[in-house]
Design goal:
Length: about 375
């Protein structure tokens, strides 16, 4: 069951996300017992997680320290000098302890920069699986999750695309036409056929890539993700969303910006979404950001997806409305097959990307992979 640590849904999801690997560790439980009552706003979030990150690194608990550095970095603004320090701490500690797979790192040439990628090797594997994330993705987090795919018939390639991780740090901004980085990675590794998993916002990216890159033979949306604007709409009161739509569609940018900026003052979740959007896209106002997000939509592309598709969904996903599921199924009118799994409070995994029961999602993925 999803644990309500603070009562703030956004905070609670991130706490679960950054401590899930160590949920049974007595030290981590004690850490949470100490800091959860202190997590009131972005400042207290950073101060407490960063303090614990340094403490755990000094003690030699590099895996835990890595997660804590990632948590500390999460809400910081790009101009904050501590953001880069926390990011470096996250990756430094991650590669000190990571040994789930034999792996090799790459820099895949892309535009005037590169896409960082890691290949994980399963002994005697005959197939290739490509995995990528979404809105606030770092490939190192996905590398940890890949342990659930150990000893399968797949070698696994994980990469940061434009707007993600080190690719973002190197100047590559978020894009909607995700077939471009996926095709670049497939070309670089000289692959004939791949299966692709998109995580979180990547649930849209994987659909977009599959629509236009036919070397993808199986498509896994972990979880479903139809529209970038859904992430703002879900959990927004109906009257607020109606005003959002009215102002946005009328092109009243100044009124729209004032409306969103006012909402952000008392809404941690919306503040993070908008500020993170600025960071990854380079946009500077809510109106321009939402115009950018509007390009991230499955509308019109479902008919081009003819691969076998696995759709995962959580009934209480705070970012993606479960009501999108039948629409996605209907629009995948030419899919080779559609397999669907909805996670509920009864089964566990009802949260975004099954944050509280991620093993359940990978059980379904492994069944689908065959």
């Amino acid at each position: 069951m999803f644990k309500k640590y603070t009562g703030n849904e956004q905070f609670d999801l991130q706490i679960t996300r950054f401590t899930y690997d160590y949920e049974n560790d007595p030290g981590v439980r004690e850490d949470l017992k100490q800091i959860v009552p202190k997590l009131k706003d972005f400042d207290s979030w950073y101060e407490n997680w960063s303090h614990l990150a340094v403490k755990r690194e000094n003690e030699g608990f590099y895996g835990i320290a890595s997660n804590y550095y990632k948590a500390a970095e999460f809400y910081l603004q790009p101009e904050d000098p501590n953001k880069q320090k926390m990011y470096e701490g996250y990756r430094r500690n991650f590669y000190k302890y990571y040994n789930d797979f034999d792996f090799k790192s790459y820099k895949v040439p892309y535009e005037n920069s590169f896409l960082p990628a890691v290949e994980l090797f399963n002994p005697n594997a005959h197939k290739t699986l490509i995995i990528f994330g979404g809105y606030d993705s770092y490939m190192e987090e996905i590398l940890k999750e890949a342990v659930f795919l150990k000893n399968t018939d797949y070698n696994i390639i994980v990469f940061d695309g434009p707007g993600q991780g080190t690719a973002l740090k190197n100047g590559l901004k978020f894009i909607s036409n995700w077939e471009k980085p996926v095709s670049t990675v497939i070309d670089y590794f000289n692959l004939k056929r791949v299966t692709a998993i998109g995580i979180s916002w990547g649930g849209y990216f994987v659909m977009r890539a599959a629509a236009f890159e036919k070397r993808i033979d199986k498509v896994i949306a972990f979880d479903i993700f139809y529209s970038g604007l859904d992430g703002l709409m879900n959990r927004m009161p109906k009257e607020m969303w109606n005003k959002f739509v009215k102002l946005f569609e009328a092109g009243k940018s100044a009124e729209f910006n004032n409306f969103i900026n006012k909402m952000m003052r008392d809404n941690i979740d919306l503040t993070w979404k908008i500020n993170k959007g600025y960071e990854i896209t380079g946009e500077t106002t809510p109106f321009d950001l939402c115009r950018n997000f509007k390009h991230h939509s499955m509308k019109g592309i479902g008919q081009f997806i003819n691969q076998d598709v696995l759709l995962l969904a959580g009934e209480d996903d705070q970012y993606v409305p479960i009501s999108r599921l039948p629409q996605i199924q209907q629009e995948l009118c030419n899919a080779g097959s559609i397999t669907t799994k909805v996670f509920t409070r009864e089964t566990g995994g009802e949260q975004h990307c099954q944050a509280d029961k991620i093993a359940l999602a990978f059980d379904e993925i492994k069944k689908f992979l065959g």
